[in-house]
Design goal:
Bound molecules: beta-D-fucofuranose
Radius of gyration: 21 Å
Structural class: alpha/beta
Shape: elongated
Order of helices and strands: EHEHEHEEHEHEHEHEHEHEEH
Helix content: 25-40%
Largest sheet: 6 strands, parallel
Number of strands: 12
Number of helices: 10
Length: 304
């Protein structure tokens, strides 16, 4: 391309790329950080025209958003699928219209031929890391566990549950109850209230599929006169600032990170796909994990 840099920023190609991004909604701190990362990466300065849609975690609304992107004739569609199933038809429609689809964050059960690439996280490994820590610390004494699950049917919830359950198999940990809190603080609180009414101080351990549900549960635990982090140990996933603060303050006991800053990588993949260059079928971003001391050390530099 002649005289690179004719557009502002590092866009390279002169042609603006119109991208429809179908986000899940705004259920959590992780999601806010992810949306911001995507909007920054898909900026005008970077050569994009971004059409953003958040579906309020309603799968039908998200399918409708993707269909509307197809009708608008966008250059590419980025999809953070709320649930795994139900994508075959609309992804086929995108393919027939020659519009490439790039998945970010969660994945789908549809055939791999129906999307160009997936930029995401190893949710099963996240669950496993949480489960291993729990097994090491509580696996040899009788321990009663409750679980706050993420959105039912999402790859994040399904795979985290699988990884966690595999890791605690054969330990002295007993699962009292497991219910969805839809990745939100409000539902995390309500479901935990229900658990506490039913099982009271029998509960020794809470595994929440994300920080926000764990943070909601803190209110319920305190209202029941119990001390989070001590009477009930708490393990979560994400490592957003509020979660890390609860961990550093001793109210959580362990957090497995899930990196929401995927925007730059997704934008790079979209540019390649639109340019007809080959890309990998999946890019998995690495996560770490934190105990209370590690959270104290990491907190000052936390970006989200
Ligand atoms: O853990 C949760 C969010 O899909 C990884 O969705 C994402 C999850 C994340 O709402 O906080």
């Amino acid at each position: 391309c002649a005289g690179g840099g004719s557009t502002a920023g590092g866009g390279g190609d002169d042609k603006v790329i119109t991208v429809g991004f179908a986000q899940t909604g705004s259920e959590s701190g992780w999601r806010s950080a992810n949306t911001e990362s995507m909007k920054t990466a898909f900026s005008t300065e970077n050569g994009f025209n971004l059409i953003f849609n958040a579906a309020d975690n309603k799968p039908e609304a998200q399918i409708a958003a993707v269909r509307s992107f197809i009708n608008q004739g966008v250059d590419a569609i980025v999809l953070a699928p709320i649930v795994t199933d139900g994508w075959d038809d609309v992804l086929k429609e995108a393919k027939d219209a020659n519009i490439p689809v790039i998945l970010e964050d969660r994945t789908v059960s549809a055939s791999e031929d129906l999307y160009a690439s997936w930029v995401g996280l190893d949710f099963k490994k996240e669950g496993e890391t949480a489960g291993k820590w729990v097994a090491e610390n509580f696996g040899k004494t009788p321990t009663n566990l409750v679980v706050l699950e993420g959105t039912t049917g999402s790859s994040a919830a399904t795979d985290r549950a699988t990884g966690f359950n595999d890791a605690i198999a054969g330990t002295d940990i007993t699962l009292l109850d497991s219910q969805t809190g839809n990745f939100t603080r409000a539902e995390g609180k309500t479901v935990m209230e229900g658990f506490l009414q039913k099982y009271g101080s029998q509960i020794n351990l809470l595994f929440a599929h994300n920080d926000d549900m764990g943070l909601g549960a803190l209110d319920a635990i305190k209202a029941a006169g119990l001390t989070p982090g001590t009477d009930i140990k708490i393990v979560t996933i994400d490592a957003v600032k509020d979660g890390m603060t609860a961990l550093a303050d001793g109210e959580f006991n362990y957090i497995v990170e899930c990196n929401p800053l995927l925007g730059e990588k997704v934008a790079e993949v979209v540019k390649k796909v639109v340019a007809g260059e080959s890309v990998d079928k999946q890019y998995i971003v690495e996560d770490q994990a934190f105990d209370q001391e590690q959270a104290k050390a990491a907190l000052p530099d936390r970006k989200y």
